[in-house]
Design goal:
Length: about 280
């Protein structure tokens, strides 16, 4: 049963926060939805936003300033939590970059994580179906976007489930997680030591096996003042993979911008316009 935690009038629409029992996760999950004013008249396009490490379902809705532009374009925004919570798994709350708040948007295959860390199934099946059932959302017009760990999630889920998402963009994504410390730590615990299995959750590796999966293009914004750029994000690896796959990519570099939400809020208008064009084409 869907529980409404709170709802708030916002730019002519409704910003809501919700909780429900998840069969995929096996625990309660929280998510947020912004319904633009156009949703009062019928189904509207939907943009799923996946947040980064340590974030929750509230972070994007509070910090990005996206509702103003979602209202202008008539796009529903959906932001899930970044992992299961209160799992009772030993060590799940010990690190800021792994466990609670760091689900990496995949289905863990290794115990004990496999019991609850099933974020891929949760997002592309359960939460997507819930949104289409309980909110005025258009099933043929769904995009995905994310930041950092969520940028990784957006790119990977778009490539693994192209029929479920018609548009994809990212802010400062972890673009080659099997090659960076964040990804290696997460994949080692969630997926085990078989590095070959990691490639199925690495956007750069996946892109190398595709040919023009999103012909309308992919948009990525990256701050050049980002403290994680050199060691963790590796956008140049994804850029090379896109070139090999004949995938149109707009990778914009922004001097002075760091990894945080001041950066995201500066360019979120461009991402909403990008998805609006793609989802209405």
């Amino acid at each position: 049963m869907l529980e409404c935690i709170s709802e708030h009038a916002c730019f002519g629409g409704v910003q809501g926060f919700y909780r429900h029992p998840s069969s995929a996760i096996g625990l309660p999950m929280r998510f947020s939805v912004y319904q633009p004013p156009q949703a009062k008249e019928g189904p509207v396009p939907v943009l799923f936003y996946l947040a980064g490490l340590t974030c929750t379902e509230e972070t994007f809705m509070i910090k990005a300033g996206a509702q103003r532009f979602a209202a202008q374009h008539g796009i529903m925004l959906v932001a899930p939590d970044t992992s299961p919570r209160d799992t009772g798994i030993a060590g799940a709350a010990d690190s800021w970059d792994f466990g609670h708040g760091a689900g990496f948007y995949l289905d863990a295959t290794q115990a004990p994580w496999s019991a609850h860390f099933r974020m891929e199934s949760y997002l592309v099946q359960e939460l997507r179906d819930l949104i289409l059932r309980d909110f005025p959302a258009s099933p043929e017009r769904i995009g995905i976007c994310g930041h950092s760990m969520g940028g990784h999630g957006a790119l990977v889920l778009a490539l693994r489930h192209p029929g479920r998402f018609q548009s994809v963009s990212a802010f400062a994504p972890i673009a080659a997680p099997s090659r960076c410390p964040w990804g290696q730590k997460a994949f080692g615990h969630y997926l085990g030591p078989d590095v070959a299995s990691w490639q199925q959750h690495d956007a750069s590796a996946l892109m190398m096996t595709r040919t023009t999966p999103y012909p309308q293009g992919i948009l990525i914004d990256q701050g050049l003042g980002d403290q994680f750029l050199a060691e963790q994000l590796l956008p140049q690896t994804f850029e090379a993979a896109c070139a090999a796959a004949q995938q149109p990519l707009t990778l914009r570099h922004h001097p002075g911008y760091d990894h945080g939400y001041y950066f995201i809020s500066t360019f979120i208008e461009d991402h909403l316009a990008f998805h609006s064009r793609n989802l209405r084409a």
